[in-house]
Amino acid sequence: MRLLLVRHGQTPANVVGALDTAPPGPGLTALGEQQAAAVPHALRGESIDGVYASILLRTQLTSRPLTAALGLPDAAVLPGLHEIEAADLEDRRDRDAVRSYLEVAWAWGSGDLSPRMPGGTDGNAFFARYDADIRAIAAAHAGGTAVAFSHGAAIRVWCAVRAGNLPPDYAAFSSLDNTGVVILDGDPDGGWIVESWAGQPVGGMELRDPRADDVTGESIEDVR
């Protein structure tokens, strides 16, 4: 199948660099709404069979212009597509907290699933829930195309481990702006190949906010 993983539009937390991962989470900024509105045109060439979102409000809001344009019901909400939980680091924006969060996340992305997020879970728990949702999407769209609206760190870490053609550290050092899209081909049993990593907003660089302190979407070099 063809799987498009789309990061949600900008939120207030993305602007200030806060670790905001708990449900239901914030809505979109005015720029985030513009980014979401650009998604249908950007994906107009895709033959989309289904649209999915996480339990966090921001993905559901980002998905609505696309489902409306396709004449589909609202995105199906799945329980495991949400962001990597910050646990004890939730709502913090200081560099120590951000570094701690990313160090654990990128340990998982490098294949070491044993570190635990402070006060939270290890990488095995993250991959169990995310893999389960991807498997459900693949089962429903074998041979087709589905779009899943998810989150910056979650998409990057999952792709780092599950995509067979990414070089070491590619996901960690490749940014994924709000409404950036990663396109994969494959399935859970045969494996996944990244066909395209479009890290900028789907509407182009004019919809990027260079002033935002977007910690889960930036290259790890930017937050060290």
Give the helices and strands, then pairings:
Layout: E1 2-7, H1 12-16, H2 30-42, E2 50-53, H3 57-70, E3 76-77, H4 95-109, H5 123-140, E4 145-150, H6 152-162, H7 170-173, E5 181-187, E6 191-198
Helix pairs in contact: 2-3, 4-6
How would you sum up this structure, described in words?
The chain has a six-stranded mixed β-sheet, sandwiched between helices. It is globular. The protein starts with a strand and ends in a 26-residue tail after the last strand. It has a single domain, classed as Phosphoglycerate mutase-like (Rossmann fold, 3-Layer(aba) Sandwich). The protein is of the alpha/beta class and 224 residues long.
TL;DR of this structure?
The chain has helices at 12-16, 30-42, 57-70, 95-109, 123-140, 152-162, 170-173; strands at 2-7, 50-53, 76-77, 145-150, 181-187, 191-198. It has 224 residues and is α/β, with parallel strands linked by helices. A 6-stranded mixed beta sheet has the order 3-2-4-1-5-6, sandwiched between helices.
Strand order of the largest sheet: 3-2-4-1-5-6
Mean pLDDT metric: 96
Q: Which topology does CATH recognise?
A: Rossmann fold
Largest sheet: 6 strands, mixed
Order of helices and strands: EHHEHEHHEHHEE
Counting helices, strands and paired strands, the structural category is alpha/beta
Q: How much of the residues is beta strand, in percent?
A: 5-15%
Low-pLDDT segments, ≥5 res: none
Binned, the helix content reads 25-40%
The 3D shape can be described as globular
Return the CATH class. Alpha Beta
Main features:
Rossmann fold; globular; alpha/beta; 224 residues
